[in-house]
Each structure stands twice: as structure tokens, then as C-alpha cells.
Write a structure and sequence with these properties.
Helix content is 86%, strand content 0%.
Length: 49
């Protein structure tokens, strides 16, 4: 996939997920996806070793 297209897709997805969410809900979702990404990165790094 084209890197710019991927960035645009992620931004569009974030906007769609954020619709009609409160600030508290957005904070929880942000923490969830941050932890998910960090955990996936950790797993990928451990798989390389």
C-alpha cells in the first residue's frame, strides 16, 4: 500500500471512530489503541530475537 494512502486511511478511520464520542471516551480509546500498538511492537521485537 502507498504510504500516503495508508496515512490518509488511518486519519479517516480515526475521524470516523471519534464521531459522537465524549472527551472521556476519546481518552479511553486513545489509551487502548496506544497500548495495543505498543504491545504489538513488543511482540514483533521479541519475534525478531
Amino acid at each position: 500500500m502507498n504510504p500516503c494512502a495508508f496515512v490518509n486511511f488511518i486519519s479517516l478511520l480515526a475521524c470516523e471512530i471519534a464521531k459522537d464520542k465524549s472527551q472521556d471516551e476519546l481518552a479511553i480509546l486513545s489509551a487502548f489503541f496506544t497500548q495495543l500498538g505498543d504491545t504489538l511492537a513488543t511482540i514483533a521485537a521479541l519475534n525478531d530475537n
